[in-house]
C-alpha cells in the first residue's frame, strides 16, 4: 500500500510510461518552524520512496531540507551521500527538494539537487531573491544566489529545473525543446512552459500546502 505522504502520478512519453512520486510535506519556512526531527522524518521518507522502487521520478518541494536552522556543509554532504547510496544501481531520478545550507558559516544558499545511479546529477542554486534574505538574516547569514541555468540530461530526456521565483528563467535563457520542466517551489505553482517541446511535461511541486493543486503534472499539447 502506498503511504499517504507519497502521491503517485503516471505519465506517458513517446517511448514509455513513467511513474512519478511526490513526497508530501508542508515545507514553508514562513509558518511554524520545522524541527530537526521533522526534517529527519522527511529525509527517511525520501529514502523509503527510493527503496520501494515504484517510481521513475521522485520529487520534493522547496525548503524540504530545512529544520531549525540552515544545514552546515557537513550536514549537506551527509544527506547527499545517503541519497547517492540509495540510488546506486537505480535508474530513477530523485529531486528531493531544496536544501538551505551554509558553505562557510557566512553565506546561505538554496540548492536543488538531482540523483540517479549513485551520482549527483546536478546542483542548481536558486538564482533570485524569494525570501532567502529574510531567512539568512534570522541566522546571522547573508543570502547567496546562483548564476547557472538548470539544464540536465536523464536517460534520453532533456530536462530543466527552476526554483520558485526563478520561474521563466529557462524561457528567458532560450532553453527550448525540453522533455521535462520541473518547478520546485513554496508558494508558487505556475510557470511558463514555452521551453517544453510538444508533448513535454511540466512537473510542479509546491510545498506551501499538501493540497492537490500544489503537486501536478501538465502536458504541453
Detailed description of the structure:
It is a single chain. The model has no long low-confidence stretch (mean pLDDT 93). It is built from four helices and 14 strands. The chain has 221 residues and is α/β, with parallel strands linked by helices. It has a single domain (6-219), classed as Carbon-nitrogen hydrolase (Nitrilase/N-carbamoyl-D-aminoacid amidohydrolase, 4-Layer Sandwich).
Secondary structure elements and pairings:
Layout: E1 6-12, E2 17-23, H1 36-52, E3 57-59, E4 71-72, H2 73-86, E5 93-95, E6 98-102, E7 107-116, E8 119-125, H3 132-138, E9 142-143, E10 151-154, E11 157-163, H4 169-172, E12 178-185, E13 196-206, E14 215-219
Parallel strand pairs: 2-3, 3-5, 4-6, 7-9, 11-12, 12-13
Antiparallel strand pairs: 1-2, 6-7, 7-8, 10-11, 13-14
Helix pairs in contact: 1-2
Amino acid at each position: 500500500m502506498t503511504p499517504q505522504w507519497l502521491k503517485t502520478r503516471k505519465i506517458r512519453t513517446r517511448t514509455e510510461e513513467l511513474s512519478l512520486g511526490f513526497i508530501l510535506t508542508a515545507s514553508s519556512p514562513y509558518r511554524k518552524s520545522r524541527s530537526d526531527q521533522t526534517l529527519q522524518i522527511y529525509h527517511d521518507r525520501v529514502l523509503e520512496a527510493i527503496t520501494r522502487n515504484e517510481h521513475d521520478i521522485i520529487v520534493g518541494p522547496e525548503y524540504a531540507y530545512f529544520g531549525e536552522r540552515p544545514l552546515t556543509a557537513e550536514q549537506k554532504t551527509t544527506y547527499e551521500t545517503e541519497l547517492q547510496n540509495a540510488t546506486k544501481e537505480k535508474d530513477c531520478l530523485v529531486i528531493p527538494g531544496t536544501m538551505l545550507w551554509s558553505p562557510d558559516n557566512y553565506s546561505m544558499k538554496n540548492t536543488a539537487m538531482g540523483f540517479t545511479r549513485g551520482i549527483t546529477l546536478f546542483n542548481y542554486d536558486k538564482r533570485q531573491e524569494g525570501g532567502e534574505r529574510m531567512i539568512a538574516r534570522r541566522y546571522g547569514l547573508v543570502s547567496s544566489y546562483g548564476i547557472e541555468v538548470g539544464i540536465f540530461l536523464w536517460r534520453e530526456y532533456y530536462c530543466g529545473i527552476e526554483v520558485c521565483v526563478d520561474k521563466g528563467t529557462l524561457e528567458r535563457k532560450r532553453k527550448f525543446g525540453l522533455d521535462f520542466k520541473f518547478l520546485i517551489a513554496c508558494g508558487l505553482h505556475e510557470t511558463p512552459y514555452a521551453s517544453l517541446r510538444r508533448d513535454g511535461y511540466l512537473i510542479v511541486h509546491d510545498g506551501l500546502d499538501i493540497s492537490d493543486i500544489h503537486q501536478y503534472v501538465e502536458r504541453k499539447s
